[in-house]
Amino acid sequence: MTSTTSTKVDSSTFTFPREYHFPPFFTTQPNSTTRASQLKNWSTLIQAYCRHNRIWRLSLVDAVNSPLFHNDRLNRRLSLNDAKDVVDWMTKKEGGERAEWVAGNKDKSVAWIYWRRPEEWAGVIADWVDEVGQKNTVLTLYELKEGDTTTSQEFHDMDPDILHKSLQVLVKRGKAQVFGSEDQQGVKFF
Asked: Considering the entire predicted model, what is its pTM?
């Protein structure tokens, strides 16, 4: 998956849910109740898979050939159009707003996958700042994203766009201020 933003892709250690081993899971269900359940199950699977493999930005063109959407054992795969439908559902309120199409991506082929939405990441980052006593301290975005003090944190190596969205949530809440130029930004937490 070359277009995905990820630190590793190791589906060999990922445990797929039981639905993944059921051939109809890969076929659009005509009954609306069954379809709603199917979409929810796909959303849960995509979030778990991306979280496990640290995939922040998912390229559907690449992913349809990966174990996420292609079950070799069953010789079944989700089509690109069906994968787009699932992710599109994830972008909506009914889908929990667990995805967002990357801006400028008119063909809907690349999306951010939110196993935590930016608002949730903002809370995780704010909790970490409190925990390590970094209030009223300036940290660079590099320190937050790749620093030694964050290696054990789930937000370590976060996609920079998602980090920026999450920090903007803290700015709006009056808990942070982001400053500096694009390649040398810093953040002060209050």
From this structure: 0.88
